[in-house]
Task: inverse folding
């Protein structure tokens, strides 16, 4: 059974930093992609950053240069380092994993496995 668990959310002032963690267990395929998504009530879930089993990364333009996605293979953990946070970064953040198989890293429907989310609140 694949499980993802996020942690590291919290409340910070604009300009501050947070590091989110996503621990993945039970995922046995050598091909994978993990994307961090975020969502606010009443809005669609949007992709923030992604990393795949080849180590390739990609970012939404809104966070490029401020957020960094990384992995620790030994700990089966993915990280999202978020710097220079802005109030518009406020959202529930989720990590999602799958092998995609032709899907897109930024499409929520292409991911089968999701964590429960961690809240990030940035005040001005």
Result:
């Amino acid at each position: 059974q694949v499980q993802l668990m996020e942690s590291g959310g919290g409340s910070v002032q604009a300009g501050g930093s947070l590091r989110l963690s996503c621990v993945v267990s039970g995922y046995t395929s050598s091909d994978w992609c993990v994307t961090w998504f975020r969502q606010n009530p009443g809005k669609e879930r949007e992709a923030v950053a992604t990393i795949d089993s080849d180590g390739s990364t990609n970012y939404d333009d809104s966070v490029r240069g401020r957020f960094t996605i990384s992995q620790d293979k030994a700990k089966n953990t993915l990280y999202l380092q978020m710097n220079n946070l802005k109030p518009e970064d406020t959202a529930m953040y989720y990590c999602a994993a799958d092998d995609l198989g032709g899907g897109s890293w930024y499409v929520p429907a292409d991911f089968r496995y999701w964590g429960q989310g961690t809240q990030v609140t940035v005040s001005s």
In short: The mean pLDDT is 96. The two ends are 41 Å apart (CA to CA). The first strand starts at residue 3 and ends at 7.
